[in-house]
């Protein structure tokens, strides 16, 4: 009966829309969208992350056609009289069209008209109209910067208390989704920027986008208990998406969700993760990891470290070591404690969550084992509900397991038939092998998968040749051919160094595959913007500490003790590509490049000792360590630069890059010992420790 009523209204609108007043038009479209009548199959109405009402229909396809035709007629009529629509009516109209999902040129014109009305009359729009209108525009990918800036100008610090949490989160989510950049993004970065280097309040309030973020974050910190999980997630995601670092709000939210360190010491807990959807947990984790990554792009930063260690230190400086560990443990446990397991997680949700853990060097073993089981179940040919994974999702998943040095239960072998299938689409129909692969993969994704194979010691015989073809083409391909096919400037510096490691591993562990780097690699294949010298200089960004002086002193201190116990050695022994060719028959480059290094080496006995800092380790969250207490570690400051002295009581193991390097050195005949930073710190008798090490 309800469906018949909606059909009748839709037909009436088609026949005499001009007789409907603006409020009647917008109310009708709003009603269609609210119950999903005639919504397109691709609309967000059917997104499994949402819990939208959808009225069943016995003639679903016919109803969709009816609504499509009705919306076209409504759009034409509304565009002629948009000035007569009140703000709420414009908002309802935009929201209804957005939710119904029938995207065409007429809808684009309608949104352009609504946007211009919003820009002209933004002072008359209420908070709900601002938030929902921008949300609708961003969702249908209508991105007019003038419109967004005009709307954002209504969300000010002075007015922010009158905005409801959903209105705040919708507004900043839309701004970030539309790619609008705040002019004073550094205003909130109290961790790594001195006050004199941060933008002032008067500068922030002069830019609507900057002030909009300031207002939303101020309210989230002031009244977090009023924000629903999705609203919390959307505000944090928006900051990271827009490149805005805001340690204050991220720490405040972490304390709200899992309790402050002081609360934890007293046995108190925070709000918890109840109510977060799979997408919500994934985006929450991604937002925190991205915040730490963004520090690398901050000018005048007080962080002196680089690479992976800089990310580890930044999350500790921003949030706190214990607090960040408890937050991510909470995310992992919420995910695996769901009654349906991870079955509701889309591939992107799995990928985002795993990527975030790996980026921050955090491993929850039970969560990652559950992810591996879920992926293997979906890839099983007998599973009729198997998922479609995008290339980036595959690359991020296997990269995460490899980075954390956690076995993925044969996931690479299971992915191989799927990858081969996806890279074969269209091949042979006037489409070259390289072009077919390029439709699915980017070259950086390919390199990450190849590196993951090397770290995890999985070399699927159908996958590795395909990856090499992806990167270097067939026998007749040139680097210029591949640049045109992929639409890039060549292989990035990170990929060059990655492939040196991969090739070395293949030569030693899977020579039967017969794979080789091109003779002109890397000079003939590199990105035009990268010199070979720069590439080699960045070979090991794992642990370039802000305390380089301290690291050097530590190595020299250990060197001195080793000398006392009779261990002859040199510092910083370098193994070049020429040496690999001459001594081991491993051909990586026609140029002589410094490639592998050992901190301390006895050349005669081929004994190496590595002094491993925090950037070489992964923190295990579901181990026996107690993550209550103060901030865990402490802030270190040397010559005005900030770093973090990590706590020693956390359970750790070496990460993927360190494990791979150790394995390769052993293949070269070296015996390599490791001195972890936390072990050295606790030694009472360093001479005895070094004697046992040797």
With strands numbered from the N-terminus, the spatial order across the biggest sheet is 2-3-4-9
Approximate strand percentage:
5-15%
Radius of gyration: 28 Å
Tally the helices. Answer: 31
- Name the shape in a single word: globular
Given as residue ranges, the uncertain stretches (5+ residues, pLDDT < 50) are 535-541, 543-551, 626-631
The average pLDDT value, as a whole number, equals 89
Major pleated sheet: 4 strands, mixed
Instruction: Work out the helicity level.
Output: 40-55%
Care to count the β-strands?
Answer: 9
Structural class: alpha/beta
How far the N terminus sits from the C terminus, by CA atoms, comes to: 84 Å
Secondary-structure blueprint:
Layout lengths: L1 H15 L5 H13 L25 H20 L7 H14 L4 H17 L5 H13 L5 H8 L12 H13 L23 H4 L3 H15 L6 H13 L5 H12 L2 H5 L12 H17 L12 H12 L2 H16 L10 H13 L2 E2 L1 H15 L11 H13 L7 H12 L10 H6 L4 H14 L6 H10 L6 H8 L6 H17 L22 H6 L10 H17 L5 E7 H8 L9 E9 L4 E6 L4 E4 L13 E5 L2 E5 L6 E3 L1 H12 L3 E6 H5 L4 H8 L1
Parallel strand pairs: 1-5, 4-9
Antiparallel strand pairs: 2-3, 3-4, 5-8, 6-7
